[in-house]
TrEMBL record, chain A:
It comes from Eruca vesicaria subsp. sativa (Garden rocket). Belongs to the nicastrin family. The chain crosses the membrane at residues 524-548. The keyword Signal applies. Pfam families: Nicastrin. This is Nicalin. It is found in: Endoplasmic reticulum membrane. GO terms for cellular component: endoplasmic reticulum membrane. It is a single-pass membrane protein.
Automatic annotation (TrEMBL), chain B:
The keyword Signal applies. Keywords: Cell membrane, Endoplasmic reticulum, Membrane, Signal, Transmembrane, Transmembrane helix. It is a multi-pass membrane protein. The chain crosses the membrane at residues 176-193, 200-222, 234-255. Residues 1-18 form the signal peptide. One of its GO terms (cellular component) is plasma membrane. Belongs to the TMEM147 family. It is found in: Cell membrane; Endoplasmic reticulum membrane. It holds the Pfam family DUF2053. This is BOS complex subunit TMEM147. It comes from Eruca vesicaria subsp. sativa (Garden rocket).
Length: 566, 260
């Protein structure tokens, strides 16, 4: 409507634009055409992920939607196979949903309305934290249920707004009364017209590697040892278009970039350049048993791989308070592990928090790789994962769920994590183990930059990063590459295809059209009214212009003809 | 919303014209030719008429009730508007009701009346009574108006999924318009074709004709100055149309009496 106004004003404005009339006419016709399409409310809807593991289907198997809206206040037992059930997260009954899915009941579609605060990039606030915490837990449960189920109807997520609230209130009112949807009582039709979801052909995963060489003493022909810092950057969540994973593993990526920035400053000066090479890697495929990490490691030069002294993997370091865990797969009494852990715990002590060691053996026969360091350990490279998570995550979990948004990540936690890693690395590199030296002190030129951390965290919290949906030249990947280029001497990008066990389907985001519609009953009624109106009009006109007798004779004529024929 | 709804609205918009034709003696005397001629005159008039279209355009801002009127105009009236607006109306469009501008528009609205005059008095009709002539002309005129102004938006809009009352209201407006047009044609035939009418009635006839001819301006005033909504305006139009029809009918009968 606003569009149509503007040219209208111009049109009357002056004769000077007379010559532009044909152009304006064209514009106006275009505007008129556009108006046809958006006569109704349109909101963005995000489809539940659809994927197969070894051919076994999971997630939402359908995408297009064209049904009436229904709410949970309908009479129990009603047939919902031709309705879209709208469930606001605040009122969602998990047991009901569980039953519904496990009993494989048919449903026209499911629309889950999320509070606005779960929108990626929404910093928001002002909500009651306890309520938010409850909702987050519920959302995580719903997500788990949906992601691991095979759901034979379209499932969409959308964010609450005034329009959806108004619609929901109307729909609820009708459902509670058991009313038929009519124009006056507010029937709604939800339409998403998208094509059948298609398989994504050969999804790729992209690893980015940055190389910061150490200083080799003159005449020293031996290769320098290398320390690797690794974080997986991609995500997996119920709605791929919303899966930003601020904590898992946005926080790890941010920490890695900041560590790279700190060491690039140190290494840019030959005096402070350490005798260790630093290898930074942002790996993809994290949710899928760290496939990217595995492929990246295998592609590394044998000599290079063997030169790796140890690797530190960063995973979910954005929302912890007092204790960070060092997960390892070698026994804790292993000399290298001891050395790494002692390095961490000394620094942590100085910084005023604790680190704890957690050991989990690798079961080679099990294909599940719960931690990124396990991929290193499988290739006999010493490695540890720094994480706030207490227990190893299950497959496809803790990888960027809907509830993992910016609001739940604490910048200070990330900064503490960065300090821990950077400081312990520096003490190791410069041989200051066990000494209380602060290289990255807060007010020095080597201080951790909170603005840098925040801006990257914000960016990551707005960027969905489910690997199969990222193209090879995704702007986000290019941005990461550019960032590493700024801090390291040599950056390389590696594209690998994702293992065939996983198949993904497209159409992750769509426009949901909400139409207020009248029922067929209403139209029938209208037809009846109009018909009787025309009949009354007809009779009235005949009577006034030709007289009552004419009207009567009009109805008598046909039978009289029949009589004649007989 | 659906084809069904479109069908309903079309019945409401165009049905009364058909009913009027078949119910009254018009069909018996086969006056279709006269109606068609009137419709052609209407189309010709539309090419030199600006007011109605500008009037409708004014309502763009009003609501989406307006939208309906909006689209067709670009198909039919746009070039006309260009010619006439460039020559007559160098006025910027404002939300305020500008009496001068409205007067100008009303003046141009009388092109309608001129067209009706031409259709009634100048065109050669088959030998039908004055009584039927004005009805046939009014009917053709109103039908052409409905087709031109209402069919396209109806076709485009009423088949959409979204339900609005707008198209039903538009159909009612078409009904009111039919009554207005026939009343105006009746008054026109009294003014131009009947010679021996009672002197005392002449001012009343002219006043009524004036009121009907300025109806578009009146509704525009109601919408823009009084801020009436579409349903209220349509209700007003319906009531006034019936009132005017009644008055015109009485005048017609009064004028006919001396000749009897």
């Amino acid at each position: 409507m606003a569009d149509s106004k503007k040219p209208k004003h111009q049109r009357y404005h002056s004769t000077a634009i007379e010559s532009m009339y044909p152009l304006l006419a064209l514009m106006l016709i275009l505007v008129a055409c556009v108006e046809l399409c958006d006569a109704a409310t349109v909101v963005d809807a995000y489809r539940l992920i659809q994927y197969d593991i070894s051919g076994v289907p999971f997630g939402s198997r359908f995408s297009s939607l064209n049904h009436h809206a229904a709410s949970l206040s309908f009479q129990r037992g009603a047939d919902l196979s031709r309705s879209v059930l709208i469930l606001p997260l605040r009122e969602l009954d998990l047991g009901f949903l569980q039953d519904y899915i496990s009993q494989k009941q048919s449903l026209g579609g499911l629309l889950i309305l999320l509070p606005e605060r779960f929108r990626p990039g929404n910093v928001g606030g002002g909500d009651v934290i306890s309520e938010t915490e409850g909702l987050r837990k519920l959302l995580a449960q719903v997500e788990k249920l949906l992601v691991h189920g095979n759901i034979p109807f379209p499932v969409y997520f959308a964010f609450e707004n005034e329009e959806t609230d108004a619609m929901l209130a109307d729909v609820k009112k009708n459902d509670a009364l058991g009313l038929q949807a009519t124009a006056t009582t507010g029937g709604y039709k939800l339409v998403i017209s998208v094509s059948e979801p298609r398989k994504i052909p050969s999804p790729t995963i992209t690893n980015i590697q940055g190389w910061l060489p150490g200083l080799r003493a003159d005449g020293d022909s031996n290769q320098l040892p290398t320390i690797a810092i690794v974080a997986s950057y991609d995500t997996f969540g119920a709605a791929p278009a919303l899966s930003v994973g601020s904590d898992s593993n946005g926080s790890g990526v941010v920490a890695l970039l900041e560590v790279a920035r700190l060491f690039s400053t140190l290494y840019s000066n030959p005096k402070t350049r350490g005798r260790y090479n630093l290898l930074f890697a942002l790996t993809s495929g994290g949710p899928y048993n760290y496939e990217g990490t595995q492929k990246w490691l295998k592609s590394l030069d044998q000599r290079m791989r063997e030169s790796i002294d140890y690797a530190i993997c960063l995973n979910s370091v954005g929302s912890w308070d007092n204790e960070l865990l060092v997960h390892v797969s070698k026994p804790p009494d292993n000399a290298y592990i001891k050395q790494i852990f002692e390095g961490f715990s000394n620094v942590a002590e100085d910084l005023g928090f604790q680190v704890a060691l957690k050991h989990k053996k690798i079961n080679i026969s099990n294909s599940r790789v719960a931690w990124e360091h396990e991929q290193f350990s499988r290739l006999r490279v010493t490695a540890a994962t720094l994480s706030e998570l207490q227990s190893p995550p299950e497959l496809l979990e803790n990888a960027g769920s809907l509830s993992d948004t910016r609001q739940n990540v604490n910048e200070d936690a990330i900064i503490k994590g960065v300090k821990l890693v950077a400081e312990s690395l520096a003490r190791h590199i410069y041989g200051h183990q066990g000494k209380d030296i602060k290289i990255f002190a807060d007010d020095s030129s080597l201080a951790v930059n909170p603005h840098y951390v925040r801006s990257w965290l914000d960016l990551l919290s707005q960027t969905p990063r489910v690997a199969p949906f990222l193209s090879k030249n995704e702007p986000f990947i290019m941005a990461l590459k550019k960032e590493l280029e700024d801090y390291t001497a040599e950056v390389s990008i590696q594209h690998e295809s994702l293992d065939g066990t996983f198949t993904f389907y497209d159409s992750t985001k769509a426009s949901l059209n909400i139409y207020q519609v009248a029922s067929v009953t209403f139209d029938l009624l209208l037809l009846l009214v109009l018909g009787s109106y025309l009949i009354v009009l007809f009779s009235f006109l005949v009577i006034t212009t030709r007289g009552l007798d004419d009207l009567i004779s009009l109805f008598r004529r046909p039978p009289s003809r029949k009589v004649k024929m007989v | 919303m659906t084809l069904f709804h479109f069908f309903n609205c079309a019945i409401l918009t165009f049905g009364p014209h058909a009913v009027y034709y078949s119910a009254t003696p018009l069909s018996e005397y086969d006056t279709l030719g006269t109606s068609v001629k009137a419709a052609v005159v209407y189309l010709a008039t539309a090419l030199v008429k600006v007011v109605r279209s500008t009037h409708d355009l004014d309502l763009v801002s009003e609501s989406r009730g307006y939208n309906l009127h909006f689209r067709f105009h670009f198909h039919f009236h746009f070039h006309v508007q260009l010619v006439c607006l460039a020559t007559f109306l160098q006025v910027s469009e404002t939300e305020v009701f500008d009496p001068y501008q409205e007067a100008l528009k009303a003046m141009i609205g009388f092109i309608d009346v001129a067209g009706l005059y031409f259709a009634l008095a100048q065109l050669t009709h088959r030998n039908i009574s004055q009584n039927h002539k004005f009805q046939a002309v009014g009917l053709g005129w109103a039908f052409a108006d409905s087709v031109l102004h209402r069919l396209a938006p109806l076709w485009v809009g009423a088949r959409g999924l979204e339900f609005t009352w707008d198209y039903v209201l538009q159909g009612l407006e078409a009904n009111a318009n039919l009554v207005f047009t026939i009343s105006l044609a009746a008054l026109g035939s009294l003014m131009w074709l009947r010679k021996n009418k009672p002197k005392t009635l002449i001012p009343i006839i002219y006043t009524c004709a004036l009121i009907i001819a300025t109806m578009p301006s009146i509704t525009s005033y109601l919408r823009r100055v009084m801020g009436w909504h579409f349903p209220k305006v349509v209700g007003f139009e319906l009531i006034t149309s019936l009132l005017m029809a009644f008055i015109s009918c009485q005048l017609f009968i009064l004028c006919q009496r001396p000749s009897l």
